[in-house]
Amino acid sequence: MGRQGVIALYVLAIIAVIVGVDFAFFRHRFWERLMVNIGVVLVFAAFYLRFFGRP
Q1: Total structural domains in the chain?
Q2: Angle at the Cα of 17 (from 11 to 22), degrees rounded to 5?
Q3: d(CA 2, CA 30)
Q4: What is the mean pLDDT of each run of 10 residues along the chain (55 residues)?
């Protein structure tokens, strides 16, 4: 699988985690949901830069 395939799977994983956490824990709480979503994106970005950032 090429680099584009790995990135596509990574994006699908981040979407799945965000949607899953939103529906499971923060369905009716806007600000908490927003903060957790930003945190999830930052964690995924850190992992991406650590493991996939260098060609």
Answers
A1: 1
A2: 130
A3: 37
A4: 85 93 89 93 91 73
